[in-house]
Amino acid sequence: MTTILFLALLLAYACGMLLPLCFPSRPHIQNVIAHGSASVACSLGIALGLIGLLASEPLVWFWSSSIPLLTFSLRLDSLSAFFVLTISLVGLAVSVFASGYVQEFYGRIPVSLLGFLYNGFLLSMLLVVTADNAFFFLIVWELMSLLSYFLVVSEHEKPDVRFAGLFYLIMTHVGTAFILVTFLMFYQETGSFAFEAFRSADQALPEGLRTLVFWTALIGFGTKAGIVPLHVWLPYAHPAAPSHVSALMSGVMIKTAIYGLLRVYFDFLGGPFPWWWGFVVLLVGTVSALLGVMYALMEHDLKSLLAFHSVENIGIILLGIGTGMVFYAYDMPHLAALGIIAGLYHTINHAVFKALLFMGAGSLLYATHTRNMEEYGGLLRRMPWTGLFFLIGAVSISALPPTNGFVSEWLVFQGLFLSLELPSLFLKLMLPIAAALLALTGALALACFVKAFGISFLALPRSPHARKAQEVPVPMRVGMGILAGLCLVLGLAPAVVVPLLDRVSEPFAGISIAGRMFEMGGWTLAPVSGEFSSLSTPVLAIILVGLTGLGWGLAYVLGGKGKTRFYKTWGCGLNVTARMEYTATGFVQPIKRVFSTIYQPTVKLETEFLEESHYFAKQRHFEFSIEPIFLKYLYHPILKFFSTLADRSRVIQGGNLSLYLAYIFVTLVVLLVVMG
Amino acid sequence: MPTLPVNIGSYLVNLCSALLLLTCFAIVAQRRLMACVDLFALQSGFLAVTATLVAYLTGIHHIYLAAILTIAIKAIILPRILKKIVRQLNVQREVSMYVNIPTGLLICGGLVILAFFITQPIVHLGFLLTQDSLAIALAIVLIGFFIMVSRQKAVTQVIGFLVMENGLFLAATAAAYGMPLMVELGIFFDVLVAGLIVGIYTHQIQETFGSVDTSRMKALKE
Fold first, then answer.
1. Looking at chain A from residue 642 to 671, which residues have their Cβ under 8 Å from any Cβ of chain B?
2. Of A71-80, A201-210, B163-172, minimum mean pLDDT range
């Protein structure tokens, strides 16, 4: 039954990849087939994910191949099933959205090619999280990276897109190299590429090698996830891709790295590990979360802003997982499970709201043909649906109740606060600091989305583009609507979500905690006990709605019958124009000042005065940029080192054929003499 | 079954191998391209004779086939292709070399000594019949390589490459009594294709640089 389901899913993806190629130069038909197949495949994927999550035993598929060491073996345990579910849920909404969005590309980019890559990309992600053989895993991982690279460079006629693609390609291969090393170390010890062998406890790795595996996996998967300081490719690559692809990359693809980390740390390495592993992950998470949101604040390109927020949210996910690892190291399975559940909860939440926000950004791009926030404005009136969905996404990512972002961040906080049960004084001090920084992150994220939503959707249009904007086609709205609904559902129903996540964490933490996390018949979420802390989002939602209603009601009762007057905004007798509005740059000015040590901003103001008087300016030119410190202090020195090395070694490249032959000849003779 | 006594057979094989080596020296000493090609054809002929001898003495029949193919491809077809190229390009002589002829010959002599020196420890392990051929084969490979390094014209470099190939073939016949037939066929095919491709490329080099002097390709460097 499940095998048939799985084969049907493969077939649907294959149709989506290949059928559009049979209809050359009919972009509309290609679009419908490609994204229709992807939607069907994703629906099947959702079913498969749910079955896998509820199954008591992992589902296994196996095909042998004639290539040595390689078997096409797939395994769907609860962790894989969770990621299959996440990928398919987001994939479904994005596919519906894409069928509208891709119309933008008719005649510019071959839609059949786009559909081929898109379906292949989804399929490769699905295979990454289900692969049960290291060799096979690496192949599909590489496939995923390459397909996403080709999608990133869809608009390759633009030089900055080509640059972003190249940057991404290099970084992702650096990461893949580290993952390869990780698996080779396992192979060396176990003599097999099967995950089953990695997993078996009787072939446990020696302690030194385990530490090495910890680091290589963190760097390898961290590059894909975009942890600081390996995040540098993310703000280039994600905005450069077509928006529906950005939604998938930012929402789902970087999550495959989280999958990889969980798989390696909890499943393969298993056993008790040193506490500092968890601490390192926590540290990385905190730094990523804080720096991610701080750089996001300074971005005025909506898609780059969202890309930086991915760095932030990966940080929050790692905070959850890191807490779990710390507790796991101290053999406190209940709290370890809580940390993992918090991380996983935030994983699916981020996938949902980040994809939603990227689709929103895509809709704005579709309607206005610009990504610069300073050229938006007044779009809520012109695009009310997009505005509503974007607002829901913004509320979620800012972790405000009653949406999903709030629940998962609350769980992460709980994990961090519970550090007072740890035996180590150092960690007792450190974890609350992480919690404080997470709180700062949350506040900055809120500021950032007040900016993003306010500048984009409110006030007057700041450019002709924004003035002429129109609501996007229905499929795009439906795609966004699905995820906006999911944001609310995931927020209001932790009672359904947490037991499912508990099934994922159970094999790792060795204990099921879902039964004890709820009080009052499932309406209240209480991680340890109702006295320590508890949360009930449905009740919270009712209170919020009730209070709003109460406010309106009171205003209506007390304020009497208000007369509605339509009149110009008060403006001191001047006509209000868009140039008087608060700009995005202006909005973040205070924050820029406060954190100027980190931003190292350079502000250039050139004023050209009138010849007659120095009191009147003829023209002002304002320039503002922040220092990309990681590029400047970490990447440029490395780059410089290698280019100097390459320059030096170019001396031996004489350009003469005989010279090259002579090199080989001399080497041969020397080797013969020395070895002979 | 061989009617010749084994030691006489061994002498004959060694003689033929030595003749191969001698043609190598002749190629190094020769300036005229046409003569170089002729010498290569002659060398291939000697190679075929060696292979036939080995086949006869050991009774391994597929070496006969290899010998026939050597004659056909290396002694007839490839020299023709090369001569055609030489005529088309209208270059008859190698005017300048990186190493002049007397020095070149001396270096080649050194290479032969090196080859014998290197193979000394493993010669005792070889078959009685072809003991010294291995050293000679290695010497031919090295000299072929030396020809590629020391000459400037693309055509002579091709000849150097083919001489190396001959050396390798001799080594295979001498040390292992030939390779499996499939491998040999593959190698012959490779050599033929390489000859054709090199022919085309030489022509392209001529068109682009107005000469087949590969030292002019320095211009390709940034």
1. 653-658, 661-662, 664-665, 668-669
2. A201-210
Instruction: Tell me the pLDDT tens digit for each residue of B95-112.
Output: 677 888 889 999 999 999
Q: Is residue B1 part of a domain?
A: no
Torsion of Cα atoms, B60 then B64 then B66 then B67, to 10°: 130
- Residue position matching structure tokens 């809580």: A338
Split into its structural domains, chain B has a count of 1
- Give the burial class of A596: count Cβ atoms within 10 A of its Cβ; 0-12 exposed, 13-18 middle, 19 or more buried: exposed
The token pair that represents A372 in the structure block: 């610069």
Q: A622 with A639, same domain?
A: no
B151, B32 Cβ separation under 8 angstroms: no
Beta bridge partners of A525: A518, A535
pLDDT digits over B159-217, tens only?
A: 888 899 888 888 888 777 767 777 777 788 888 888 777 777 777 777 777 777 777 76
Note whether residue A658 is domain-resident. yes
The verdict on a CB contact (< 8 Å) between B148 and A661 is yes
- Tell me, what DSSP letter sits at residue A583? P
> Are residues B114 and A669, on separate chains, in Cβ contact within 8 Å?
yes
**Number of C-beta neighbours around residue B176 at 10 A:** 13
The number of folded domains in chain A is 2
B142 and A CB contact within 8 Å: yes
User: Cβ(A585)–Cβ(A297) under 8 Å?
Assistant: no
Count CB-CB contacts under 10 A for residue A654.
15
Q: Is residue A392 part of a domain?
A: no
| pLDDT range class, residue B64, cuts 50, 70, 90 | confident
In a domain, B29, yes or no: yes
Structure tokens at A152: 């990133």
Closest residue in B to A672 (Cα–Cα): B118
Around Cβ A399, how many Cβ atoms within 10 Å?
25
B55 lies in a domain?
Answer: yes
Of B142, B149, B219, the CB nearest to A661: B149
Domain residue limits at A661: 631-675
B116 and chain A: CB distance < 8 Å anywhere? no
Q: Which amino acid is at A437?
A: L
For residue B1, pLDDT beyond 50: no
Q: Which domain holds residue B190?
A: 6-220
Could you tell me if B123 lies within 8 Å of chain A, comparing CB atoms? no
Contact with chain B for residue A613, Cβ under 8 A: no
Is residue A313 one of the residues assigned to a domain?
A: no
Beta strands in A398-542, from DSSP E residues, in sequence order: 518-519, 524-525
Do A250 and A355 meet the contact criterion of CB atoms below 8 Å apart? Answer: yes
Mean pLDDT of chain B: 82
Tell me the C-alpha distance between A437 and A415, whole Å: 14
pLDDT of residue B153: 79
Is A603 contained in some domain? Answer: yes
Residue B158 within a domain: yes
- Look up the pTM and report it: 0.80
Cβ-defined contact of A656 to B215 (cutoff 8 Å):
yes
Mean pLDDT over A135-146 rounds to: 94
Residue in A655, A661, A668 nearest the CB of B217: A655
- A635/A669 same-domain check: yes
